[in-house]
Amino acid sequence: MRSCRRVASSVLLICLTLAGCSPTAPGSSAPSGSASGTAEPSGAGGAGRAIAVGEGPQKAYTVQQQPAAGSCHYRYEHGEPLEDPKCTPGAISPAVTQSNLKSTICRKGGYTSGVRPSTSVTGREKKLNAASYGFTGRMGDAEYDHLISLQLGGDPNDYRNLWVEPADPGHKKGSGVNNAKDPVETKLHTAVCKGQVTLAAAQQAIVTDWTTALSGLGLG
Known about the structure:
About 25% of the residues lie in helices and about 10% in strands. The protein has helices at about 1-20, 120-135, 180-195, 200-210, 215, and strands at about 40, 50-55, 75, 80, 90, 145, 160-165.
């Protein structure tokens, strides 16, 4: 009887090998296409990394834990500050999709004011995030910025989508927040709502490099 079992096992193994299969341990499963909490990107040319999916708009926001102090580092392109992709990779809201643009970010009357966290929450997060990035400039000139803006379907309060953005080069100290990233976000929003680019392409362009987002999508 034991010899018969050994023969049967050998035959099964040969069949699996010829079929290009490999035995699977009990209780295990094949890996899925994408990790939980991420969305498959479909940016320009379908290239780019997956962007995390946050919790979306909340009735009551709470202060989010930030990366450890000093663990994040700014990058610069043409003098413009960029986020640390390890600390701030971006996160999108599950409430905004390509199929519901007209009822969300492209609706008349606006969308962002209804989902934006209060300053009582973001003010505390901004101070914590400034420590994460080692930011020592004037807080009033720095923006606590959504990497993927709310008008592009960015998650409202996911720590992965928020960073203290320093002022642009040549910015006059004490003149408040005014940076070159904001017009880029507005132009991308207009293009998405006009159907010139997809929502996913715009989101991917921003997380890749906001300074080249428009040119990379052929928008100027």
